[in-house]
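Memo to structure team: turn this sequence into structure tokens by end of day. - J.P.
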Amino acid sequence: MRLTVEHKTHYRYEYPAYHAVQSLKLTPAEFEGQKILRWSITAEGCNIGAEFTDGNGDIISTLTSNGPVEAIEIVVTGEVETTDTAGVLRGHKERAFPAVFLRTTPMTKSSAAIRKLADKVAKKTKDGTVLELAHGLAAAVADAIEYAPGTTHVYTTAADAIADGKGVCQDHAHVLISAARHLGIPARYVSGYLFADHEGKPHEASHAWAELHLPEFGWVGFDPANKCCPTDSYIRLGSGLDGQVATPIRGVHTGGGNEDLDVTVVIAQSQQ
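Reply from structure team:
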């Protein structure tokens, strides 16, 4: 499938900002199942430095703005060719050992409810494979958290989400990661895009899911929010220990006061 991307992130500051630096995880890497046909990141009045690839195999660039500026708009456009690999990440060049992703973070710290969920699935699938266990965990998380936009925010932890029983794709991913790590399975957060095809998917184009490292397959993606593994409708941007690390844009600014943020993402099937 050929997918086109138009992703605009608009920051408006309360007062002029004198200096802004942002780390951009906005360029998808190539691997089996994902080929970049064209890609561009622009921000008028800003400098976007040379790209580098981090230990996770994700492509990073840095934006700097020497103001004063009242607003910054980052525009991403591109086209990607995707194929369905049943969620298995093959040919992705990275140097980090999977065991790195056994580390917990404040966002993915387990709770009694998460441990109970994980242990229940492990007991039910004790005679099965790790793949069956992973699918069981993803299904259990999907059942435990109702998809409900607006009920959580970017600082909602896995423990908070499962306690509330409501959330969005970020919350599903954090709870699955927490449950998997509790059982000794390396797990990480993935940010990207989702194409809502003619069948319709009840989630925004800017999307998130989890990857679990399984002995026989390596990294495998699981999307509890959509009760599936990533398909050719997904574009993978980057990964991290949690959503705060894997977020496409992280940064700081001097001056400016409070900031308003507006994001629009449009994913479409290419007509070519």
